[in-house]
Design goal:
Oligomer: single chain
Helix content: 10-25%
InterPro entries: 2Fe-2S_ferredoxin-like_sf, 2Fe-2S_ferredoxin-type, 4Fe4S_Fe-S-bd, 4Fe4S_Fe_S_CS, NAD-red_Hydgase_HoxS_gsu, NADH_UbQ_OxRdtase_ferredoxin, NADH_UbQ_OxRdtase_Gsu_4Fe4S-bd, PSI_iron-sulfur_center
Keywords: 4Fe-4S, Iron, Iron-sulfur, Metal-binding
Order of helices and strands: EEHEEEHHEEHEEHEH
Protein name: Bidirectional hydrogenase complex protein HoxU
Strand content: 15-25%
Number of strands: 10
């Protein structure tokens, strides 16, 4: 396994050749904002919040799916990137129905944290106010599509960790949304194991435990970390 040497924000670091820029940056203690990224599952580069600049290229690249190369020069926090990231967060707020004051994840929401990090005190875009549904047909959980940011974490964690693949994507453009099985109510799903991994993976209040009120929905990422670590180390075997 070869080692690559590169610079991130003028800091010389080393990384394994199969690592992404995001992994290399995290190992070096360099923060890059993310939303669709979740440790333990595959990356898809959906949210574009981890965009970075690479010397010699005018095109911004997503750090979560871009591999390191020898001699690469990366910038993660330029004014250009900050402008793009704030715009992306504003677009997420404007495209959905994110009312933090009445959300179950208020104070425990990654989208809310990103808005604060980007210094977003208002949205400069026109709100779309889409007509989205809330599905509470499941015995234990619910999904509020108004708060979904289409990160596909639920899809990936259900597929890659639980192995059920209950969740999937449907529609295109502004009509894109997550579905259970063949677009049926969650409570009627034959594949859902009611494990709750998707709820813990959700970065916002889109997926929630029934009975949660404003600010009460907390995600336990440690459960997912434990499952991934146990699987990788074959700790299930006797």
């Amino acid at each position: 396994m070869s080692v690559k040497t590169l610079t991130i924000n003028d800091k010389l670091i080393s990384a394994r050749e199969e690592e992404t820029i995001l992994q290399a940056a995290q190992d070096a203690g360099i923060h890059i904002p993310t939303l669709c990224h979740l440790e333990g599952v595959g990356d898809v580069g959906a949210c574009r919040l981890c965009l970075i600049e690479i010397a010699g290229s005018n095109k911004l690249q997503p750090a979560c799916v871009t591999k390191v190369t020898e001699g690469m020069e990366v910038q993660t926090n330029s004014d250009r990137l900050q402008k793009y990231r704030r715009t992306i967060v504003e677009m997420l707020f404007a495209e959905g129905n994110h009312i933090c004051s009445v959300c179950v994840a208020n104070g425990n929401c990654e989208l809310q944290d990103l808005a604060i990090e980007m210094g977003m005190d208002h949205v400069r875009l026109d709100y779309q106010y889409p007509n989205r549904k809330v599905d509470v047909s499941h015995d234990r959980f619910g999904i509020d599509h108004n708060r979904c940011v289409l990160c596909t974490r639920c899809v990936r964690v259900c597929d890659e960790i639980e192995g059920a693949h209950t969740w999937d994507m449907a529609g295109r453009g502004t009509n894109s949304h997550v579905i259970t099985d063949l677009n049926q109510p969650w409570g009627t799903s034959d594949t859902c194991t009611s494990c709750g991994k998707c709820v813990n993976a959700c970065p916002t209040g889109a997926l929630f435990d029934k009975g949660s009120s404003v600010g009460e929905m907390k995600h336990d990422r440690a459960k997912l970390d434990f499952l991934v670590t146990a699987r990788e180390k074959h700790q299930w075997l006797v």
